[in-house]
Design brief:
Layout (H helix, E strand, L loop, with lengths): L21 E4 L15 E4 L9 E3 L2 E8 L1 H6 L1 E7 L3 E7 L8 E4 L14 E7 L7 H13 L15
Parallel strand pairs: 4-8
Antiparallel strand pairs: 1-2, 3-4, 5-6, 7-8
Length: 159
Amino acid sequence: TGRETTQTVRVSIPAGVREGQSIRVRGLGESGTGGAASGNLYLRVRLAAHPDFRVEGNDLVHDLTLAPWEAVLGTGVEVPVPGGYRVRVKVPRGTRAGRRLRVPGRGLPLPGGGWGDLLMAVRIDVPEYSSKRERELWRELSKISEFRPRGEAGEAGSG
């Protein structure tokens, strides 16, 4: 008829629904011809971006930024989990950038029941500014450390 109408509909989103899936709403499509019932309305699911998590399959991923000393020595950190809660995660000694720490059962609901996992993607950050004493300690560490990230012989750094 050329006339546009607006209708608000409340739709239940099933647990375990994923990006790109379709949800069928019966009877809310175009009117049938010759007195037939209305067709179905199909909604395509798009997940809104979240400030703390991204979705990978059934898992949620959170970027966990550590200081170099936390990664070397190990530590315990509190991380957000869905629902506004926080859990304490143990960061093992010698954790490297790119490692993923797992919190089982804190991800997305699975269609058949159960839950995916929450993964912490480890990033290591360094301070942009440091005091004279901090730089002295880093220089001392560079002289005594046997760690060679590029497999080079000799001193680790000279900055």
